[in-house]
Fold each of these.
Amino acid sequence: MCGIFGYLGKKDPLPICLSGLKQLEYRGYDSSGIAGLSGGKIHSCKEVGKIVGLEKKLSLAPMRLDLAIGHTRWATHGKPTNSNAHPHFDMDTSIALVHNGIIENYDILRDLLKKEGVQFTSETDTEVIAQLIAKCYKGNLLAAVQQALPQLRGSFALALIHKDHPDEIIATARECPLCIGFDDQNTETIVSSDPNAFLSSTPNVIFLRNNEIAQIKRNQTDFFHLDRRILTKKSERIDSEFKVLSKEGFEHYMLKEIYEQPATVQKALLGRLDDENASILLDLQIPEEKLHRLRNIWILGCGTSAHAGWLGTLLFEDLVRLPSTMEIASEARYRNPILTNDTLVVAISQSGETADTIAAMREAKRRGSSILGLCNVKNSALSREADSTLYLNAGPEISVCSTKAFTSQITVITLFALYLARLKGMSESQMRYYSSELKKVPAQIQQVIEQASLLQTIAKKYAEYDDFFFMGRRYMLPTAMEAALKLKEISYVNANGCPAGELKHGPIALINERFPVVAFCSNIQTHEKIASNLMEVKARGAPILAFAPEGMESIAAIADDVFWLPPAIDPLAPFASTIAGQLFAYYIAKERGCDIDQPRNLAKSVTVE
Ligand code: F6R
């Protein structure tokens, strides 16, 4: 998390940094700040909260700067206060520094520095870096960085400036994304956590690898390793996918992105269903022969992407008859997994930057597995490091709460399962059957969207409750977990996803008339079982909202409210149910007056452990 942006060039750095930080706000919005140089002095401005606050403060007291670095923060060490906001400084305000990552030994270093008389003004791990570099500084900023950084444990992307180096920004990274962008004339240089924040003006990009340092000067950037080696790095030219972001008349990005899903699912399918040959066309860089002899699949993801992966395990089991497990990436990275040459690792991430997913993927790669990435963002770390990447093609997802990326993830994972199934002998007629069912999905999604006002009415009724169980079976279990996650993250409501059959093994003790149950009933194979589970909670007084396929009258007889969904085969039922869950969460959050697109404590891209 946290976004870094810096500018050295011929233009006024302030508006460029502010605009870059806005592009990076998805990485955190607890506070933001900018520092720059002019007249041999460091000047800075920081503000708690979103970047509009910083912008407003700067409009009242503008700074004239020759170069600048900026930061948007997702708090790790220390509350979101002004003193904990970046940039951070050394004691003499000679150095200003912005940081993304976590310094694990910051407390030891802080104690050592304090013993040497250094005074700290923040609770952050970042300030330790600024103070440490200042201690090492003897007139050469690059040398000070090379001396200080080997003492740090943990992860970092840094940009820093020094008052005596009016034409220099130092940027360096370990386990965190950072890249340098140049224009064609090499008159402007940008440092940023994400190339998409600058590609429209500076399309030539160099990604920093672990322990590499960029010494950015006017018209020239040199690269070094922390061990002082000089590096030669080549830039790549990346076409801008930059689009002016707009809610296009919707009240929130989340609603806009929910409404986009008939089109985004269609886009994920586009060119991938080959009806003539009853096959799936995927641009895979992993040899077919290797995929043919796979014995198991290990799926990695976090949050919503993990839920997509969980649905993937059911698809691989049902359609391919191939064992697979979904691993929460933050756990997977510290396991001792049994991965063989015949294991495929599928890493799923909207952003392609999630630290835990990347680390688990790297570990699997180190153990010899092939990696297939499912990712939305081009040029992300995941897409650069995976052996092959299937893109979601969902377009930028701006709302922190993931919606359209999820349905695109499950579209692509279904396509991949069908691809493998065909490779392993699925008949042409079966393949054609699934293909025709898949083609119905965009219309099913549209049908739910057209009933958004009904979901709003239902949501109004349920918005007064603070606790919920979301339950389902088989394909409806990850779907229910995902719907619960949506509700909790944007409404701050205690929404627990639970296997319907598991409630009676403990969680049912929580049930009372103030604890509604939201049941996802679209898994036809288990519909009688979920009806029994609903009777059990009804007997304990829980209000019941059911999302059920049209015609499932047994559920209507039990539930207090039913939202009818278009019927679909079990493996594809998650799509329509998910849209209903997203809209339900959206309208509850709206009813409760929450900050829907930027919920508290969250960030879109989770680049720390
Ligand atoms: C929930 C949400 C998160 C992300 C998770 C992984 O709405 O957005 O749970 O799904 O942080 O992010 P990616 O997919 O970018 O790896």
Note: The chain has three domains: 3-237, 248-439, 449-609.
Amino acid sequence: MYFSKMFLPTMREVPAEAEIISHKLMLRAGLIRKLASGIYSFLPLGYRVLKKIKQVVREEMDGIGGQELLMSALLPSESFRESGRWEVFGPEMFRLKDRNDRDFCLGPTHEEIFTLTVKNSLRSYRSLPVILYQIQTKYRDELRPRFGVMRSREFIMKDAYSFDRDEAGLDDSYKKMDRAYRRIFDRLGLEYKVVEADSGAMGGSGSQEFMVISEAGEDGIAYCKTCGYGANEEKAGCLPADDHSDECPEDIIKIHTPNIHTITELTGFLGCDASRMAKTLIYKADGELIAAMVRGDRELNEVKLKNVLGCTELEMADAESVRAVTNADVGFAGPAGLKIRIIADHEVAMGRNFIVGANETDYHLKNINFGRDFSAEVHDIRCISGEDKCPCCGEKITLARGIEVGHIFKLGTRYTEALGCNYIDEEGNERPMVMGCYGIGINRTIAAVIEQHHDENGIIWPMGIAPYHVIIVPVNVLDENVMKVSEEMYRRLAEAGVEVILDDRNERAGVKFMDADLIGIPIRINVGRKAAEGIVEYKPRGGKEALSMTVDEALEKVLSVCKYDR
Ligand code: ATP
Ligand code: MG
């Protein structure tokens, strides 16, 4: 490709809304353009990368026996109604009606549609297992589309679905998928962690997320360098810190705490540590008021609480509801005498002599003890912290930010039962198929690669997914020798199957170097004054030095690097 002919609108200034580096660089390097909030076009350079990532994904899916197909993005509502997700998706689902007033949506994910397709096509145990997948556009009306293609409203997902006879079969398909995912993200040059995840609205018995380690990540993850344990913070198990359990319960003392509403105010006022207090938080869970308790120095984990309660809606109760159950203003709730369901964290049940709200405005109680002064259902409902120990081996846990690029789920029979997707087993019995689903966000993965592969000058593409492998930069296009050597190298590389750009623009060398660095082409060949002697410079994008060598040496080096890294 000749640079002068490329549709490559690079930008110097990016809009302020581009907060993270991948978003900035994707705009600056002319990979994407924004059309509306959370809606992006892929321009030629970006689309080349997108196609390469799709290809890596495709090869690895085919490698485990996956069969690719393509489903519509426009989906009728019926199967979503049968699974119950027409309601569950809420405002995140793009809904529309046809001319006959029938309900449709733009598919946010395809569990229902794959289940329906398999239901109407496979009947015998002999046809199972089967793994089907597609690389297709998804639509989600995200609450906060942001970070460019990282969280957009239209995006490309590779979604795969496995159908097995039983749980053992599902385990097998799931393991294959896990290994394929690791190969994919390895090939993309990503540093990532595989972590246990919450299954959320998807349902099912277990799931893991593939998290690319990055400060730009929207998820918190916890992992152990000793035993390899990893979990999304939403899910990470917490060992109770056994701080005060050896104390004897003491007599309750009522203390006057005027206008003290928060733990920070209370620690200041009483001059004691937040770990000596217990917070009682009033929530509305599917409309019912409940109380949740964690130690004063801990944060409540709402995902864990939601799972304990088995509810779909969980929100902090409004001041009026708090007053109705505690007879006090917000900030003075406590467990003693509370008439609603109480869920307490392990540490609250283990600790002694806590300071809690007195259920009376401007008062707290000292020396409140679980078992003696209140009862509660005891669960792990707190957020993990940097001081915590690994729940598996007890060594130090590490916290990091992660970008979720992939998610694999064991769905079990959640969808096949709802939609009647059964098979006939060897004894002639009808059984629901056992299902798994597996997603990779293709666009988000591009952004994640850039987050990990860039410097102050631009992107540094790993060879395997670079839009082009090599850029030849004639330092002066008016110099005949320079152009002759450049054209010759361009021709020979292209003939050898190398994807190459020739920067034929009549620009200063500095400008061309800057552009080559910005768009991140892995190898740059500088053709300068020494071209007349058959000498050029070879410059890897990630390296500092430009190496002088003969044209043949440079060609050979390019070919070997491309072959090795591709
Ligand atoms: P998130 O928690 O980030 O919203 P999710 O759990 O909703 O993701 P899944 O339903 O598991 O995502 O979708 C599979 C994959 O699709 C995700 O791992 C992610 O890589 C990608 N993905 C999901 N939502 C978006 C989005 N809005 N924009 C880009 N990619 C997305
Ligand atoms: Mg989501």
Note: The chain has three domains: 16-212+401-450, 253-379, 468-565.
